[in-house]
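Q: What does the assembly look like in three dimensions?
Context provided by user:
Components: two
Sequences:
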Amino acid sequence: METTAVAPSEFKNGLAAGTGIAIGYVPAALTYGLLAKSAELTFIETMSLSIFVFAGAAQYIALSLITIGTGVFEIVLTTFILNIRHFLMSAALNEKAEEEAIWKKAAYAFGITDETFSVAAMKDGTLHSSFMAGLVLISYSSWVIGSGLGFAAGNAMPSVVQESMGIALYAMFIGLLVPSLKTSWKAVLLAGTAALLNCIFTYSDALSSGWAIITSTLIASISIEAANRLRRKGSIE
Amino acid sequence: MSMTMAAIVLGMSVVTYIPRMLPFVLLKGKELPSFWQNILRNVPYATLGALIFPGVLSFHENIVFALIGAAAAFLIAFTGANIIITVLGSIGILTVLSLFM
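A: Here is the predicted structure of the complete assembly.
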């Protein structure tokens, strides 16, 4: 394999692939910074969460729990439940990761979010650590810098733009999914089933949002694979 | 930083990193039975479906506004535009729309 020769451009490809995430993170990070300030966190505390945790939804929820005076253990447990879905995402990415030193994989694993996972999973071919480094770096920078700017800016951001930018990450998810929907009925079925299940779990309050995403994803992925296998067996025999 | 806040940051970072890292360290990849490999290949499409719905319906308090944003993103992506165009185009359409709402 010519992995060493392609490494520099893989890094650039990673940066380019992460540009959509970087844009999408800006409003989310600004909002986080604003909320952290209003929750009376210091600048250092606000930045520490973004630098060491790097998990948007968990950070929002931690802020609201801190505000209502929840204990450390409950906050950490809630974070764990919310973020355990990344286990499934990392397992899926590991299947297309190139064989490299474990420490390289363990390093880029820090940057697995819903968004970096989605972009990496939809990339053609295998995943090289240089690609992942570029993808994670641009996303992480946007998140950390945005958090700081949000804290510093106070309520300066015009609300019209802030409201419209709420679509950014969803637009990215849609942009990642639609090309597959156009060519694969299986993708339509998988996305549709998981979306429907997640709506049911969420609106019925049956599961917290972290578990709802994992459960919907697993049920859809397993049942559709099982159905596919049965159908294929039927047509071969 | 207070001790409590330091404990929160440390605890949150550990429980967030472990699920992200374990599969890469424990699984070499490709050693799972093909049925499970296929399931893991299904995961991205299913996850994207679950990440989009129902979240996209509630990023804005006005559900019509949210639906227009989702529809705009879908249509732009459907024309084959790249991700950045889809993201910026949807933001642009909603910003223009919100000036009239």
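Follow-up: Residues 3-99 of chain B form one domain.
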